[in-house]
Amino acid sequence: MTMLDTHTDSPPRAPAMDRIDRKIIHELQRDCSISIAQLADRVGLSQTPCWKRIQRLEQSGVITGRVALVDPGRIGLGLTVFVEIEAPDHSPAWRARFVETVTGLPEVVGVWRMAGDVDYLLKVVMPDMPSFDRFYQRLTEATAPRNVTSKFAMERMKDTTVHPVNTTDP
Fold first, then answer.
1. Cβ count within 10 A of residue 20
2. Domain 72-152 grouped into CATH 2.30.29.30
3. d(CA 134, CA 147)
4. Above 80 in pLDDT, residue 10?
5. Which pTM was predicted?
6. Would you kindly state where each structural domain of the chain is located, as residue ranges?
7. What is the pLDDT of residues 45-58, one digit of tens each?
8. Contacts of 151 (CB under 8 A, 6+ apart)
9. Distance between CA atoms of 59 and 82, rounded to whole angstroms?
10. Which residues form the HTH asnC-type domain (predicted)?
């Protein structure tokens, strides 16, 4: 199974993690550019065991990548839009076309299949409204959704990639 598999009967099984593993995850989520020496010191290990734990967390799929976080406004992407999609049907063919389309659109930075009133929620970033209009036309032409509702973000109050990790329990 790969990270992109979307049709599994059960969620992937999480590897057994102790408090030190969770501390490593917590620290790397906050700043993955710290040195192994700094990380090892923060979590109470020597460097070699700390590095081995990081490798194990990567191999098991807990750590899926290391990135630099960028302020979208400072790189000319000042418009964030949350796009709700209602599918015209729930056939495998439509779903496959939809997934292929949205994963191929670089403006789409997040996609979730939802429960409730809408079927999919997209997070889209772009420079301005004319760019969004062009994006909207490409999206709707390629996927022919039943309905599309766009919600424009006025202010980003919190947007983090840091997941809450219990670093105190054993």
1. 15
2. no
3. 17
4. no
5. 0.85
6. 19-60, 72-152
7. 999 999 999 999 99
8. 81, 82, 83, 84
9. 33
10. 17-78
